[in-house]
Amino acid sequence: MKMPENTNAYLLGGVLGAIALAVVGFGWGGWVTGGTATKNAAVAASEAKVAALAPICADRFRAQGDSAIKIAELAKASSWDRGNIVEKSGFATMPGAKSADSDVARACADMLANPTTPKT
Length: 120
Known about the structure:
Helices cover about 70% and strands about 0% of the residues. With about 120 residues, it is mainly alpha-helical.
């Protein structure tokens, strides 16, 4: 069987077009691999969980009888220790959970120590 004369040019054009399509798609088109999509979904789920549970923790912390004193103490503590303080208080442990989520505790402590900071 005889191939047409321009077969090599067509094949080369097809390969170069596929490479250009991949570069444009992954570079500017927003394409991602399955692994990257999984990582992005895990990060988004974690951020959503923290955003939902931190206000509950802060409300529970504020509901204690001496909350003004505890919040003042929390504000005086270093930013590194605030999450641990809230975690040890037990208010970052949600009903049904066996332990506190450290990300929720840090976000809760930040909400309590900096009430004027806008929530994201």
